[in-house]
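If you are new to this repository, start here. Below is one unmodified record pulled from the training split, so you can see the exact layout before writing a loader.
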Amino acid sequence: MSQYLDIEALNQQVSIESAFLDKLIAQQQRIIVGQGQMLDRMILGLLTNGHILLEGLPGLAKTLAIKTLAQSIDASFNRIQFTPDLLPADIIGTLIYNPANQNFSVRKGPIFANFILADEINRAPAKVQSALLEAMQEKQVTIGKETFHLEEPFLVLATQNPIEQEGTYPLPEAQTDRFMMKVIVDYPTIDEEREIMRRNLNSQVHEKIDPVIHPQDILKARKSVLKIYMDERIEKYIVQLVFATRRPENYGLKELSQWIQYGASPRASIFLAHASKAHAFMQHRGFVIPDDVQNVCRDIMRHRIGLTYEAEAESINQDEIISRILSRVEVP
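And here is the target side for that same chain:
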């Protein structure tokens, strides 16, 4: 009985603390038409301090979405266009020699912002990709002998174009694993595209965005997310979903063994738990239910499952494998 009362109290507290999300989402939707999945995942990444890899064709409002989010939170935003001639110093900054006083001074790079859009990350060589990923992981940058901490909140959205492979440097699996989520951005519907066309013709897309919250609100919300209640049965469910990608035959999914080269890493379990709590918070709920886990599962796991040649030959992708796992693993 006392546990029920505690959860009820937590539910009410979370309902109050998450109320600002409605204003944030409404402000986003004033500018962005559709793309609800991408907008939700960006906010989820903010709440969990996790970075996002976006895969989609050009022109699907990726830049506009993150820019709008930054303005809604009164935070700084930088866009970095990755190209083959980019150097690590172009991202993190460098030392500049001043002949007047014969000293070196630090010039900070575009990584010093709350929101970073790393556009077409697979167009830059491995050295540049590593510089960005190191900053993402450590939340700090060393220039010369000085170390600088990056501002919080700090969110990186890296994009890659799925159709162009010529002149690209694909991210190795070990590096994609550092991204919390891989989100597939799809085309808008017919009605959404008509609305996009109308807004652009009426210049509504350039409307001024007023901040509705501040960065400190996000940092406070992150602490609230950690308080969300997760039952032991949900914890076991998450671990079983991850283990089913490693030992599918133990879950009655022997046919998946020929398609999976390697399963999800322990980061998948950590991020699944954290993202499930954040999803519950976004629903103004103080506890995690199986629907929360299932909602975020594909975005968390799709870039953590390696496919065999047989899977590629049979046009089997990670989403199909995850769907089979979700349908077979017992729901608590």
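Two things worth knowing about this chain: The domain at 22-219 is CATH 3.40.50.300 (Rossmann fold). The two ends are 21 Å apart (CA to CA).
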